[in-house]
Predict the 3D structure of the following.
Amino acid sequence: MASDHRAQVEELLADYRRSREQLASMQQTLEAINESVTSSDGTVVATVGGRGTLTDLTFSDDAYIRHRPSDLAKLVLRTVAAAVTKASETANRTVSPLLPVQTDPAALLAGRADLTEAELTPKPKKNRGRPLTTTATRT
């Protein structure tokens, strides 16, 4: 009987080790993601990592001549947003095979997993019947 339990424990440990190896591999793959998008006119290149962080932003030599500052700012925002989308799609494809069926990889990567909006909303602190006090300072 003890050997049956020992075999079950060994099997569980082996499953756990495989899961950890898969998780480590997935994390390494996410860290290696670098997606770049170039604006349609070629003046801006935005590079974003697998977690949606902007890692590089470059401008062509004539970007400041071809665009007014406000237009260049809008172009940067559009280009970065496109790079974020591209990196997010790559990250989703990376984690999807490791997730249970019907798990949203985008929600998981965003830290929401399968939580509802109500579960994500912070609960108000209870006062426990004590009066609220405020300290006012006079100047």
Summary: The first strand starts at residue 34 and ends at 38. The chain is about 50% helix and 10% strand. The two ends are 78 Å apart (CA to CA). Strands lie at 34-38, 44-49, 54-59.
